[in-house]
Prior knowledge:
It is a single chain. The protein has 463 residues and is of the alpha/beta class. It has two domains: 7-265 and 438-460, Aldolase class I (TIM Barrel); 312-406, no CATH class. The protein has twelve helices and 18 strands. It has helices at residues 29-37, 68-94, 111-121, 139-144, 157-166, 204-217, 267-274, 299-309, 341-349, 368-379, 411-419, 452-460; strands at 7-9, 12-14, 17-19, 41-45, 99-105, 128-132, 149-154, 178-181, 188-190, 225-228, 249-253, 281-284, 292-296, 312-313, 324-329, 332-336, 354-357, 362-366. An eight-stranded parallel sheet has the order 3-11-10-8-7-6-5-4. It has a three-stranded antiparallel sheet with strand order 9-13-12, with no helix packed on it. It has a three-stranded antiparallel sheet with strand order 14-18-17. Helix 1 (29-37) runs parallel beside helix 2 (68-94) and helix 2 crosses helix 3.
Amino acid sequence: MINLKNVVISGKEVLPIIEGGKGINGTDGRSSGHFAKEGCVGTISLVSADYYDNNGKVVLERSHKVKRLDRHADLIEGAIKGGIAQAQIAHEIAGDNGRIHINQLWEMADSESVIRGVLEGAKGLIHGVTCGAGLPYKLGELASSFGVYYYPIVSSARAFQILWKRAYVNYSAFLGGVVYEDPWLAGGHNGLSNAENPEVPQDPYNRVCELRSALNKLGLNQTPIIIAGGVWCLKDWENYLDNPEIGTVAFQFGTRPMITTESPISDAWKKVMLNTKPGDVALQQFSPTGFYSSAIKNKFLLRLMERKNGEISFATEKSEQYDTPLSLSSSKTVYIAASDLAKANNQINAGFSVIQETPDSTVVFLTPDEWEIMKKDRAECLGCLSQCQFSSWSGANGTTGKIPDPRTYCIHKTLFDIAHNGKTDDNLLFAGHQVYKFREDPLYANGHIPTTHELIEAIKAGR
């Protein structure tokens, strides 16, 4: 057995076991409610959370509006409806047990409006707000105004210090904890900085110690650090417990709770995860957010990798380096290095005959069908991100000012589709790098899908 002691999270003593919030419908009211029912912390994802019609069916079509700004407004309204609906479900299941948190991607468009709308519409049902993927400066002010605790997600001590000095120092009373999310191990979007090598992971222990030291210097000695990314079995993290270098600590489980009977993801998605092997997850930078993210290498992701590998630099004017013409269309010709001509011709001859520019003075090659889908996805953009590299949408002024990037994809479309029984090979499957452990974990032997209760009992036992 693990010597697991309760910690105070969002004003109540609970087990130091937290459900990680995940993307669109990766965690919902049912999954988080059952986590809280076990005396833990459940986390509802606010990213396009499901809401329901008068017959209790999920509303799948979020907007029929012609203008993108109108579709964007419908998206925000729907996210608020969904967050409130899922909070009500979670509360009904959990009762007075545990804590219920909400999780929001800060780089989502109008994330502040969504958080505010959900906290207003679900007063008393939500105890904490977790937020990452960016630097959520206004999170402290926003959560504190509702008397709700807040939990910034960071990947380094430096990131938290920036947030503290710029904003959180004025809202310390409701700082419930700091989530350290390991950028090399976590699934989904990661906080890998430009100064860190994606191919050279660092020891999380040292980075967490640095974070604790920074918190202590700021007088936040009792503020819990929540370890996220790569957390599977607490037996692997025993040296973090009762450790003065780490201090008060809790653990966020992201990947493992995705396969329970209460998890909202599809059976097909669960089956893929149960059969994933070491090395099947890639840390890559195709997301239209610009962040690194980790996902399973299925057909969808492999095609993005193939497109990136076929990328060729060009110049608009002929030069000594770029001396070979390449026709992009009947009206535009650019120049590439002679050494890249065979690479270009091989792709064109293989059916990737549509050549598209990227914002970085390179070109990539698509099939005509891929190009038609890409144009359609851009035309139907909902404005889901504060800034989107795929569609060039910007919530600030309507456009990023850059051309759309054909190396990426419509993130809302693929995450919404996979969250609602879409094909597992044709959509992005976010996952942590330890997803292969499902194959060797006795809890999942012979394809067994445990209940949340079974999972929590295994976690508490160090299994």
